[in-house]
Amino acid sequence: MNYAGSRPVAFSKTWMLCGALWASFSIGICSVAAADPTGNARFVVKELALPGANGLVSLDYFIFDPASHRLWVPASNTGSVDIIDGNTNQVSALAGFPTAQVEYKGKHPVFGPSSVTLGDGVVYVGNRGNSTVCVIDAHALKIGECLAIGSPAEGLSAAPDALTYVAAVRELWVTRGVPPMEVPSSDRAITVLDASEPTRLRLKGKIALGASAEGFAVDNQRGRFYTSLEERGETVSIDIHRHEIVARWHSGCDEPHGLALDAARGILFVACTARVVTMDVTHDGQILGSIDTGAGLDNIDYLPSMKTLYAAAAEAAVLTLARVDEHGIPNRVAVIPTVKGARGVVVDSEGNAYVIDPLRGRVLKVTLRSEPTHQG
């Protein structure tokens, strides 16, 4: 069954209301035209409810597949990976993933599929409920083999956090723990899985980090993998062939979060708590600039074709768009109000942004009506 929902959306200190259209097996969408504070750009925000959502849905990693124009959203406590059609906004659920109560600070919340990445004709999903990584046929939309990377008895610290497919070496890299929730990685390493046979993963080895990894960016062009170390506040560059750290940089973030990359220009974006810092990976991580975004950043994204950075701040309840100039300096072009708790952003190939809203069990789709211009 397909789902989408509607509710009031706040823009520029006013509430705009719109009705939803409902029909059996169809979608209802609340579309609101919104202007950024300077009136330079207009946006439509669509609220896409996730199947089975009744309040909080545990959301973390999600990814857009430009080939199929689908957004893959692991909805952890529902036991499903939800799939949003970027063309129609229809939402469907791929069910059948195990869930389990996992101890966290004396409580036992339900966890299930929580991370996702795209492989060669497949989609990989990490499950915090049973510490497995499963394969999905990207065309048939069927769940295949699952590989255990730890024991559920070890808890969240040994469960998969981020998944990253490193195409140049046909490997799947897996981090563990939940660093932002004060759950460090059990092994303080990256687990490397052999994905040369895409539908059948095999354990290959580990890359020692000495701390918990948070955020990632793959640079197949330079043969590098970038991640930040939560406990040390540093960002490291790893040689994807040698599986070794080859550089350590300090962005000035005490608590680094998500990363994004402009591979062509060698610009790495590091999300701090309330700002994004740009670094030059070709000149030993030299800091190029930064932009304030409001508090509550998590994963960020970047669209190379528009040279535009996207950052969603959960506490500030805004989505910031910034054009990155030839010097690597981000310049704000739009600030779009969202809602408290909406965090993490993924952008598609056309510049549409998707922001997860865990508290309300939905995804906000922000569509750019006209290309933004510099605010100054």
Tell me the helix content: under 10%
Tally of domains: 1
**Whole-number average pLDDT?**
88
**Main beta sheet:** 5 strands, antiparallel
Total E-strand runs: 33
What is the topology, as strand order, of the major beta sheet? 3-4-33-32-31
Sequence stretches where pLDDT stays below 50 over 5 or more residues: 1-40
CATH hierarchy, class: Mainly Beta
Question: How would you name the CATH homologous superfamily?
Answer: YVTN repeat-like/Quinoprotein amine dehydrogenase
Q: How much strand content do the residues show?
A: over 45%
Radius of gyration (Å): 20 Å
- Globally, the shape reads globular
Please give the count of helices.
0
Kindly report the CATH topology.
Answer: Methylamine Dehydrogenase, Chain H
Structural class: mainly beta
Alpha-carbon distance between the two ends: 45 Å
Q: From the 3D coordinates, which CATH architecture would you assign? A: 7 Propeller
Using brief descriptors, characterize the structure shown.
single chain, 376 residues, mainly beta, Methylamine Dehydrogenase, Chain H, five-stranded antiparallel β-sheet, four-stranded antiparallel β-sheet, 33 strands, 0% helix, disordered N terminus
